[in-house]
Every structure is written in C-alpha cells, then in structure tokens.
C-alpha cells in the first residue's frame, strides 16, 4: 500500500476510522490513507521492527464467519507468492477484534502517478515489471481478479509491485460488479463481469492498464478499435507493440493470450523496439 492512497478517506458512520496513535498489537496507527467498500487502509508504525507499514483492515461487516474463512484461505494462498514485483504480506492476523493485513508501505499508487503524464520509458519499465509479476502468479496458478492502477504500488527508483493478490477476490464478492461506481469496472473483462474469471481475465485487465499508461486514456465498452488515445499510442509505440496490446484487450477471451506467461513472452519479443525512434531520441536528448 502507499502513503498517498488513490481513494481518499471518506466519512462513513458505519465504518468509523481508527483514531491516530491507537495501538493494534505492535502497530501504532498514524493516519488513514484510503477507504473503500471492503476495507480501510492506514499508515502505521511497527513498534517492534521500527518501520512504517500499511495496514489493510476489512470493515467489520465484511469479516463474518464465511467471508473470514475465505480471507484466511486467500491470505495463505498469497503468502506463497515470493516475487520482487508482488507486494508481500508482512503479517495477517486478528488483533483486538480487527483482521489486520500488514504490507510494506509504498510512495504512491499508479492511480496517483497517472494524474501526471507518464513518460514512455517509465511506462515500458512498469509494464515489464508488472508482466513479470503476473507471469509468476499465473505459473503458481493464482488469478488476481482485480488488476487496476489502485493495486499497483510505486516504490523508490521506479520499482513497482502488484498488490492485493487473493484479497481482491474476497473484496469483489462484497460489491456488485456492474454499476458499482467503484472505478474497478473499467478494468474488468466481460466474462469476469458475468462471474467467470480466468487467467485470460487478468490478461485483459493488464492490457487495459498498459494501454492507459501509454495512451493516457482508458478504453471503454464495447472496446471498439481504435479506442480513445489511439493516435497518441501510434506516435509513441511500434505497430508490433500496438498489436500486442490489441490482442491483450480482445473482447473475445479465446482471442487473447491464454495467461500472463504467454503475454510476457509476447511482450519480450516486441519490447526492444517498442518505442518509436523519435520517442527514444527525444527521451535521450539533453
């Protein structure tokens, strides 16, 4: 999680915020940095290890017996993922009646960063890192189910990590996909909106996220080609890279890459010449 959460805290009397300086076990709450329909995120201080962390605390009405069992299952699944571009779980346990999920604290989310134009070289670096994470997760047979800029956490030196593996599947069960107003809908594959997520659904979501980074605009249903931002895309990247993106966000799931592994391999083929020469020279000139 990040210091500057994309979803700003909102007042919700049914989900009152924890007070600053309150202790939850070894953690001391510093401030609330984000809130959504499933959980509230806090910046906290680990009084034992002496470091700042992010605490994701599901709302009490989301931690009923059935959902808590599912959360435990997904946390165990996520704990198996050991990759430099996947946000690690530092801790997950019940503390004073709250289910607390502790993770490293990043600088900001990709949503925050996209408030300003993202340079092509930076976007290409982010793409490479995120596809490394997705390919690894799919090799472990783990589907994310909620790939979006809010779940991409930025750390120093342009290092990115994909967050909320496993937990995303739990939170998605707590809201209606269509018309939720959560902002996530724009990144969900059509078949996932119908309740049938697969590895190809993650490919679709990742493809939209990559398109957004390069084109500055998020394509919308029915995803006709060319989508908004296509002209900027053509000025920035090669035809092969555009073909890679177009296959990634194909509405018909069987036309997409079958999983993150195949998607990553396709990216590796086009990445060396992904940026147009005018873009490369402009970025390298003084």
What is the gist of this entry?
The chain has 286 residues and is an alpha+beta fold. 36% of the residues lie in helices and 19% in strands. The protein contains ten helices and ten strands.
CATH evolutionary superfamily of the largest domain: Transferase(Phosphotransferase) domain 1
CATH topology description of the largest domain: Transferase(Phosphotransferase), domain 1
Distance between the termini: 35 Å
Give the biggest beta sheet. 6 strands, antiparallel
The share of residues in helices is 25-40%
Number of helices: 10
The parts where pLDDT drops under 50 for at least 5 residues are 175-183
From N to C, what is the helix and strand string?
EEEEEHEEEHHEEHHHHHHH
Average of per-residue pLDDT values: 87
Strand content: 15-25%
The tally of structural domains comes to: 2
Backbone structural class: alpha+beta
Shape field: globular
Question: What's the total number of strands?
Answer: 10
Layout of helices and strands:
Blueprint lengths: L1 E3 L18 E2 L2 E9 L3 E8 L4 E8 L6 H15 L11 E5 L2 E7 L1 E4 H4 L6 H20 L12 E4 L3 E4 L4 H6 L17 H4 L5 H17 L14 H7 L2 H10 L11 H11 L6 H8 L2
Helix pairs in contact: 3-6, 3-9, 6-8, 8-9
Describe this structure in words.
- With 286 residues, this protein is of the alpha+beta class.
- It has two domains: 2-107, Phosphorylase Kinase, domain 1; 108-284, Transferase(Phosphotransferase) domain 1 (Transferase(Phosphotransferase), domain 1, Orthogonal Bundle), CATH 1.10.510.10.
- It has ten helices and ten strands.
- The chain has a six-stranded antiparallel beta sheet, with no helix packed on it. A four-stranded mixed beta sheet has the order 1-8-9-10.
- A hairpin with a 2-residue loop joins strand 6 and strand 7.
- Helix 3 (120-139) runs antiparallel to helix 6 (199-215) and helix 8 packs antiparallel against helix 9.
- The longest helix is centred in the middle third of the chain and has 20 residues, at 120-139.
- The radius of gyration is 19 Å and the shape is globular.
- 40% of the residues are buried.
